[in-house]
Write a structure and sequence with these properties.
Uridine phosphorylase; Nucleoside_phosphorylase_d; 5-stranded mixed β-sheet; about 25% strand; 2 domains; Rossmann fold; 4-stranded mixed β-sheet; Nucleoside_phosphorylase_sf; about 30% helix; uridine phosphorylase activity; Uridine_phosphorylase_euk; single chain; alpha/beta; 6 helices
C-alpha cells in the first residue's frame, strides 16, 4: 500500500472529509486493519444489496450501517470482521478519484497489506449479449489509449491505466465457475467523461455527429477488442496502480 505523499507526515490531523472520518477521532488500525478486499460501485443501493448478499452467504444477519454517513457523500459498509469493505463511489472519474484518494489514505493509516480492489457496475456493451459479465483486460480512454488523463497545475499528466492481468485471469476463472452460468468474457473497456456524447449516443440534449459516424467509431472500437463503455475504469486502474494495489 503506497501513499507517496510526503506532506501527510507533517499533518497533525488528516480529515477524510467525504468519508466523515478523522485520524484524531478514529483508530484506523483497530477498525480497518484487517481489510483485504474493497468492492466499489456507482450506485449506493446496488453496493448495499451486494454487501447484504455476501453477509447472508457468510451467515451474518446483523445490520450493516453506513459508516460514512457523517461525510454525507458516499455509502460505506464493512462486512465479515471488516475483511470486506463495500463502497459506493458515485458516477464518473471525478467522484471516484475523490473516494480512492481517501480510501487509500484510510488503508495507509490502518497499515493494511495485500488489499485487492474490485469495481462492479453496469456498462454499455459492444457486440455482446445483454447481461454479459465483462472482465476488463485493459482500460482505455475514448481515443483508445491506456491512460488516465489529469491536468495538474495546468499541465496534462497521463497515468498508465493497465489492469492486473493475474487478477483478470483469477476473476475470469471464478466467474466461469459460477452456478448461474451467466455469459462471461474478457475484453477492453473504454472510459468516457460523459454518458451521452463521449459514448456515441444520439439521444442527448446535444449531438454533433451522424449515426454513420457513430457506427464507424464503434466498429473501430470493436475491432480493437473493446467490449464495453463506462465512466470510471481508467481512473480506477491508474490510481490502484500508483497505490500498489491489485485492482480490476
Amino acid at each position: 500500500m503506497n501513499c507517496e505523499n510526503p506532506n501527510l507526515k507533517s499533518l497533525d490531523e488528516d480529515v477524510l472529509y467525504h468519508l466523515g472520518l478523522s485520524t484524531k477521532t478514529v483508530d484506523f488500525k483497530k477498525h480497518f486493519g484487517d481489510v483485504k478486499f474493497v468492492c466499489t460501485g456507482g450506485s449506493a443501493h446496488r453496493i448495499k444489496d451486494f454487501a447484504h448478499q455476501l453477509a447472508k452467504k457468510a451467515g451474518i444477519h446483523t445490520e450493516l450501517p453506513n459508516l460514512a454517513s457523517k461525510g454525507g457523500r458516499f455509502a460505506y459498509i464493512c462486512v465479515i470482521s471488516c475483511s470486506f469493505v463495500f463502497k459506493q463511489h458515485g458516477m464518473g472519474t471525478p467522484s471516484l478519484s475523490i473516494l480512492l484518494h481517501e480510501l487509500f489514505k484510510l488503508l495507509h493509516y490502518a497499515e493494511c497489506t495485500d488489499v485487492t480492489f474490485i469495481r462492479l457496475g453496469t456498462s454499455g456493451g459492444l457486440g455482446v449479449q445483454p447481461g454479459t459479465l465483462v472482465i476488463t483486460t485493459e482500460a482505455l480512454n475514448t481515443e483508445f489509449k491506456p491512460f488516465y488523463e489529469l491536468r495538474i497545475l495546468g499541465k496534462t499528466v497521463n497515468r498508465p491505466s493497465y489492469m492486473d492481468q493475474t487478477l483478470v485471469e483469477e476473476l475470469y476463472s471464478l466467474a466461469k465457475s459460477l452456478p448461474e452460468n451467466m455469459p462471461v468474457i474478457k475484453g477492453k473497456t473504454v472510459c468516457a467523461n460523459d454518458f451521452y456524447e463521449e459514448q456515441a449516443r444520439l439521444d442527448g440534449a446535444f449531438c454533433s455527429f451522424t449515426e454513420q459516424e457513430k457506427l464507424s467509431y464503434l466498429h473501430e472500437a470493436h475491432k480493437l477488442g473493446v467490449r464495453n463503455f463506462e465512466m470510471e475504469c481508467t481512473c480506477f486502474a491508474a490510481q490502484c496502480r500508483m497505490a500498489g494495489i491489485r485492482g480490476e
